[in-house]
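Thread title: Can someone regenerate the structure for this chain?

I was given the following input by a collaborator and told the matching structure tokens would be attached. They weren't. Posting the sequence so someone can regenerate them.
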Amino acid sequence: MKASIIAGFLIFSIHAFAADLDKRQSELKAIQQQIASEQQDLQSSSQQRDKLVQLLKRDEQAVGDAAKKLNQTEGQLETSRQRISELAKQESQLSQQQQAQQQVLAKQLKSAFLAGNHDYSKMLLNQQDPATVERLLTYYGYLNKARMTAIESLKKTRTELLQVQQQAKTENERLNALAVDQRAQSNQLAAEQQQRQNTLAQLQKVINQKASGLEQLQIEEASLKRVIEQAMKSMSESPSMEGLAKSNGRLNWPTKGALRHAFGSTRSGNVHWKGVVIDAREGQAVNAPASGKVIYADWLKGFGLLMVIDHGQGFMSLYGYSQALLKDVGDTVKAGEEIALVGRSGGQSQSGLYFEIRHKGEAENPAKYCR
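Best answer:
Regenerated them for you:
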């Protein structure tokens, strides 16, 4: 029943996803036709670039949603597998316990049978020693009580064993339904990534033909500056958030990989890197280097799916180019907790993580804090 409900919900989700994807594909084709049929001046090219950027935003948000769902499903799959493994151990232990209890009960029944030649009434009529009779009666009472206890224990074990077997069956059904869901979500993610790639190719074509790469970087920096200013207004002065001043050289990098771009190196012209770019495969986990609170989690031009974490005392960290954001604004995160997935959003051609650390709005070298 559960599997059929999940399947029904999955079919509905796939239809909704297909309709949304078709709409975005149609919009992209319309822009492509407009570009091909008209002689564009700089102004119209800029307008089309903005349209493509907005479409890219929606494509990358859809990729993020699909990747987040897939990540959650894979987590549920792992939990389900662990539960099945635990249930199998419990079943094995209960089976062994049941077998041992059956052997104990069999021995007690055999003892009772062998002792059955003693007739209590005959012992009394034959005027056996009352003390002897009393001892025998006490002994038989103990045997009977032990027998009843063994029977009750065996019944309890059998009940628990049946319950565990039923739980294992239910968990296996859930695992199968999750596996079906995972395959569908993987297909959805692949379709969204292809749509995003088509939009990005058209956007790059427009930028190469009409727009200045340096101008684009300056626009992106201005967008990030506005986000930083907005984030600073949301920052907490809570004494429980100690900031990063005492963490020099002690923090772990948010993800594993070599530095593609170092802090302060030139991007283009007089535009320099305010953070670092870490080479990492798409879908790799991004972990919070320190505890804090999420104060921004959205798509930003040039930086894609971006998260900002407030660490207190004027410190914040930023994570861009993400494939998916796994935390929302207002969420509290612990050091080492998974917060995002490495990606190439923001129109990046290579997967990686953009990582910044700022203090009172000013960018600082992350290598100063991370080991």
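The longest strand covers residues 292-300.
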